[in-house]
Amino acid sequence: MDKLTAQFQQLVEAAKNIVVIQADNPDGDSLGSALALEEILGDLGKEIHLYCGVDIPDYLKHLEGWDRVHKEMPTNFDLSIVVDTSANVLLAKLAESQYRSWVASRPAVIIDHHSGVACDIPFATVVINDEEAVATSEAIYKIANALKWQINLQAKSMIMSAILSDSLGLSSASTTPHTYRVMAALLESGVDRSALDEARREMTKMPLSIYTYKAKLISRTRIAANGKLATVVIPHEEITTYSPLYNPAPLIQGDMLQVQGIEVALVLKQYPGGKVTGSLRSSAKAPISSAIAKLFGGGGHVFASGFKINEKGNTDEVLQTVEEYVKNHFSPKEETDNATV
Ligand SMILES: [Mn+2]
């Protein structure tokens, strides 16, 4: 067992009440990981409280137990565990709240799987960043096994669901032989994958209004960077109208990357006061999503990233910058300075 896992074990053993924290962009992996930890640590006799600074989006409500995630925190916890992020910017809701000082004054363990990202969470005590894991839940599965902690069937279901979510059904480039071995073990121990898939499909069906909205987004899609980049801009009134029903970015990004030649899909959302958020997805030929997000202070995975410009964001300028970056990735400009040979 490695040192970090041993430190994690000590902190868990010393704790009675534990808060599991998800970032402000909960997804299938963060929620599945939180619910799996609730089971695993609950079986160790711990009291677990699940926290997220924002509401759990509707499309995740197929995961049983989502309604145990709260925006409030108990006062009496003695350990926190942040799942699926190492980026402080994604914990803004926590930072703004009264809970921040509580979390900062007690040990905090970060469990994540983001490659090439150094943890900048100032209150982190122990950071376990398993860069080989396709999902945080895969990292949790490894840790629990290393520590010989029981993983009950419910926890296993959550782990499988989270792995399927982050690996896009085991299809992403970050899916490893280890991921498949974990999946096989989970199936052997009785997790019903088809039931999980069916529950997700049922919950992710779209209303008819969203289907027709998707047509609008398709017709507004702009192709740039010599046919490599697809972008769509979503103004605030559309976010207000459609976001409660369905998240516009995943509604369109998968389809964008299904178009021949398109390697990068960017969805920009405009908010009042010039706040702009960007969601990036890219193909195996363009492992540049996180690099692009970094241009605007964001981060994430090489194939899936996001960023947030808090004020005075100009979508045209953002589009221009991204277009340049994508063009340059595929046909690098001749270096003219003396630094290169
Ligand atoms: Mn994840």
Describe this structure in words.
The chain is an alpha/beta fold. The chain folds into two domains: 3-202, inorganic pyrophosphatase (n-terminal core) (Alpha-Beta Complex), CATH 3.90.1640; 208-330, Diaminopimelate Epimerase, Chain A, domain 1 (Roll), CATH 3.10.310.30. 41% of the residues lie in helices and 17% in strands. It has helices at residues 3-14, 28-43, 92-96, 99-104, 136-146, 153-166, 177-188, 193-204, 208-220, 236-242, 248-256, 289-295, 315-330, and strands spanning 17-22, 47-52, 69-70, 79-83, 108-112, 126-129, 222-224, 229-234, 264-270, 276-282, 299-300, 304-309. A six-stranded parallel sheet has the order 3-2-1-4-5-6. A six-stranded mixed sheet has the order 7-8-9-10-12-11, sandwiched between helices. Helix 2 (28-43) runs parallel beside helix 5 (136-146), helix 2 runs antiparallel to helix 6 (153-166) and helix 5 runs antiparallel to helix 6 (153-166). The protein is globular. The mean pLDDT is 94. The structure holds manganese (II) ion. The site of manganese (II) ion has 6 residues, from loops.
